[in-house]
Design goal:
The complex is a heterodimer of chains A (288) and B (217). Chain A has a five-stranded mixed sheet, sandwiched between helices. A three-stranded parallel sheet of chain A has the order 5-1-6. Chain A has a three-stranded antiparallel sheet with strand order 2-3-4. Chain A is globular. Chain A has helices spanning 4-14, 17-31, 39-46, 72-85, 101-106, 121-124, 151-154, 167-176, 188-197, 207-216, 243-258, 262-273; strands at residues 49-54, 56-57, 61-63, 69-70, 91-96, 112-113, 128-135, 138-143, 160-164, 181-185, 202-206, 221-223, 233-238. Chain A folds into two domains: 39-136 and 233-273, Periplasmic binding protein-like II (D-Maltodextrin-Binding Protein, domain 2), CATH 3.40.190; 138-223, Periplasmic binding protein-like II (D-Maltodextrin-Binding Protein, domain 2, 3-Layer(aba) Sandwich), CATH 3.40.190.10. Chain A is an alpha/beta fold and 288 residues long. Chain B is an all-alpha fold. Chain B has a single domain (2-215), classed as MetI-like fold (Orthogonal Bundle). Chain B contains eight helices and no strands. Chain B has helices at 2-46, 48-63, 68-77, 87-112, 116-124, 129-159, 171-182, 187-215. The chains are: A alpha/beta (288), B mainly alpha (217). The interface between A and B is medium-sized, with 36 and 31 residues.
């Protein structure tokens, strides 16, 4: 052994720069693996909730005319802060792009995430989700000038559909219009620009977002009547492995959707979607 | 480490494909940018006062704007005038336009570093302008320019990641797509980073090789 070590060190000096950098990256990852106490205790001790969210998906989470972060999912997060601290403003939002969500919770930068985020089995391997707090379908928006009236129309080689870079849209494109060409963007604004500039004739988007945009730019866009899916589970997500914190959040969502917080849920649902939420239990009437 | 291996097995092929795109766009753009930079430099040198002014204005404009701007303008703007070029061509063109400006400046710097006496000496030896350029100016120009050109190639390679904004599925976009699918926070970007590292390393190696090639004269 005594002879081997100096040799290894001698080699290490000549290790090419790329290899050395890779090793540093791997080491810094390994350092992040240490186990810590429940995030719930940390949140309570801190006295505020840190939430990672998106800023570009109306009406879930977006900046309004005044530049304020608003939306249905933002209100859900505020209700969580209210349940924890009796104050909806004891909250801090971290706004990221869609692929910045997972690092933000994995690294512990945020306690939880919410904002147009869909439960997906591929994702659930590495991200923990609560139960869903809203069904959000996926709609197709088409350029009015394209003359596309149905999914069957769309399924032709001459058409291009703009997607976001999430798995739901890629898989649904395969399923519903495999013949159309797919181009993939990392923001909804890219999708809309693509249709406006004529690079694509249609785009996939969450139904509430589609309705929102159709209302604001009705002359250019049309929402196809057929939904690609009637139900898509959007939920709160968090770092897996912290049972206490997950249990609290899941209980919160359960209370929100079917229990003591349902009146407040109905209120924000009405505010952002202009309609009554689905009934809290199948045997109860839809009203609050 | 186990999760990284499983991850690589599932998605490694997609990454190789994306790496090929990154490399393809980078190499093609750099070759075209070299040509474009040389043309600009030639115009600046021999195009008279107006040629010089035009090239300087072009260089100022392209050098002082973020390259994402021409990328967006070409990709989303050209369809409005009926040009539906593929995304990789649009992005590559934007990279060529900007890097051409930089490369023109690199050539200019390399040219200025050549002592005036060299040109006079070539003239007094009775060399024709073209021969003087080929035998005296060009070798020294290359010696002065190659390290900076290598640097520029590295910058261009990294700028290809911006093409992810316009649907080119190169390394960065592939990392984004896979991180979206799997919820893996780091692995996709780590793999992409390793690819970039090795590509940069290859560029550095080629630069050294090229420099040795011209120094030999």
């Amino acid at each position: 052994m005594q002879q081997v070590w100096p040799k290894i060190f001698a080699r290490a000096r000549t290790t090419p720069a790329p290899l050395a950098s890779v090793m540093v990256l791997l080491l810094s990852l390994a350092a992040g693996q240490a186990q810590e106490r429940s995030r719930l205790d940390e949140v309570l001790q801190r006295g505020s909730l840190i939430v990672v969210t998106l800023g570009t998906v109306p009406p879930f989470a977006f900046k309004d005319d005044k530049g304020e972060l608003v939306g249905f999912d933002i209100d859900v997060a505020r209700l969580a802060a209210n349940a924890l601290f009796r104050d909806p403003n004891k909250i801090e939002f971290v706004i990221v792009t869609s692929d910045g969500r997972w690092p933000a919770i994995e690294s512990g930068r945020a306690d939880m995430g919410v904002g147009g985020t869909t439960v997906y089995p591929d994702r659930a391997i590495r991200v923990a989700f609560t139960r869903a707090f809203i069904d959000s379908g996926i709609s197709i928006m088409v350029a009015k000038s394209s003359g596309i009236k149905s999914l069957e129309d769309l399924n032709q080689e001459k058409y291009t559909v703009a997607n976001l870079n999430n798995p739901q849209m890629a898989d649904r494109a395969q399923l519903f219009f495999p013949k159309a060409k797919i181009i993939t963007f990392d923001t909804p604004s890219g999708e809309f620009l693509a249709v406006k500039s004529g690079r694509a004739q249609a785009l996939q988007i969450d139904t509430p977002t589609a309705d929102y945009f159709a209302a604001t730019s009705a002359k250019d866009f049309e929402v196809l009547p057929t939904l690609l899916t009637a139900s898509q589970n959007n939920a709160i997500y968090l770092k897996p492995g912290d049972f206490k914190w997950w249990l609290w959040l899941d209980t919160f969502v359960s209370e929100l959707r079917t229990g003591s917080l349902f009146p407040k849920y109905a209120e924000i649902y009405q505010k952002w979607f202009k309609k009554e939420p689905p009934p809290q239990k199948f045997y109860l009437p839809p009203a609050r | 480490m186990g999760q990284y291996r499983a991850w690589l097995e599932a998605y490694g092929a997609a990454f190789l494909d994306a790496a090929a795109w990154t490399l393809g766009v980078a190499v093609a753009s750099f070759v075209c940018a070299l040509l474009w930079g040389a043309i600009l430099f030639f115009l600046r040198l021999n195009g008279g006062a107006w040629g010089r002014r035009a090239v300087d204005a072009y260089v100022q404009l392209l050098r002082n704007t973020p390259v994402l701007l021409p990328i967006y303008l070409i990709y989303f703007g050209f369809p409005l005038v009926g040009l539906l070029w593929p995304a990789s061509i649009c992005g590559g063109l934007a990279l060529v336009l900007q890097n051409g400006a930089y490369i023109c400046e690199i050539f200019r710097g390399g040219y200025k570093a050549i002592d005036r006496v060299q040109h006079d000496a070539a003239k007094s030896l009775g060399l024709m302008p073209w021969t003087a350029f080929r035998k005296v100016t060009l070798p020294q120009l290359l010696v002065h320019s190659i390290p900076a050109l290598g640097n520029q190639a590295v910058l261009l390679l990294k700028d290809t990641s911006l093409l992810s904004a316009i649907t080119v599925v190169e390394l960065t976009m592939q990392a984004k797509v896979l991180t979206e699918r799997t919820g893996a926070a780091y692995a996709p970007f780590l793999v992409a980073a390793v690819f970039y590292l090795f590509m940069v390393w290859a560029i550095e190696f080629l630069t050294r090789l090229a420099l040795r090639g011209v120094r030999w004269r």
